[in-house]
Input
Amino acid sequence: MRIIDLRSDTVTLPTPAMREAIYRAELGDDVFGEDPTTNRLEKMAAQRVGKEAALLVASGTMGNLVCSLTHCGRGEEVILGDQSHTFLYEAGGMSALGGIHPHTVANQPDGTMQLADIEAAIRGSNVHFPRTRLICLENTHNRCHGSALTPEYTDAVAALARERGLRVYLDGARVFNAAVALNVDVRELTRSVNSLSFCLSKGLSAPVGSLVCGSADFIAEARRTRKVLGGGMRQSGVIAAAGIVALEQMVERTAEDHRNARRLAEGIVRIRGLSIDLPKVQTNILYFQMTTERLTASQLVAELNKRGVKVLCVGANRLRAVTHYGISREDIDLTLAVLGELMNTS
Ligand SMILES: Cc1ncc(COP(=O)(O)O)c(C=O)c1O
Output
């Protein structure tokens, strides 16, 4: 049975070109700075996002952690969205390992935090308060419908941060999806932040890795932080080789994933018992609701599974589907047919 796995874009497998590049990668010891393939990827990544330097890390979670630990000391505070991946799904790493205090601000449905809310969260100088150091943004925003933050919004947050002597970090796990969806150069989304990370292993389909990017000084410090976390990876060129292919060949094709997500959403609108907020579907992530009492989301997931379609249950009547490399337009049509049949017969 063909399996159509829409649970996440993290399920993507490396392309044939990536496997070939991994096989042929020139390797060395990266902790000595001698892995030529990793050095090449880091240079390429920095240039691509318009920063001075970059650092390969094992995962998006490690990228977020390396950056918060590099920007902030113990007892200092990070302002971040209450729906952000870092706050919800990273095991409290910044406080567990760095003694950093997360200060949440409400995420709006489009993934932004209102400037007034951010401003209100910035601490004044008072012996009672932690010191605010950093504002974290997430683009695209996973929990907020895969929404893309615009260059204008990012610049406005950065301007506020500058005015108040703070730094801005972007969790850009899917920032290339945002750039493609908004039809802008990714540098427009990164130009005003002090540091960012992006993932190779989600929409870009590489098997492992994320890049932390920022000024040369910041990356030198981040390299130390990565070492503390056990993230110095020796012959990391086996990972970097696939990352180079990801950056060279897999960015523009995410437009196809966005078209497929749209097609899926437009089909879901027509299925009785399901509902979706169509204008919110901008990139490759979509959330939809069940509007019938006859079936719960987990029951629907189980029935879909039996028919080879996998989606995530994210609430009593809420589901998530993510399109990615390896999912075709035909797969979307098949998914819609299976969904339609299940909803009509249940
Ligand atoms: C926005 C965002 N940031 C960070 C991560 C963490 O990435 P990883 O699973 O590589 O640790 C994810 C994972 O889905 C994510 O969606």
Observations:
- The two ends are 22 Å apart (CA to CA).
- The longest helix spans residues 329-345.
- The CA atoms of residues 112 and 256 lie 25 Å apart.
- The chain has 14 helices and 13 strands.
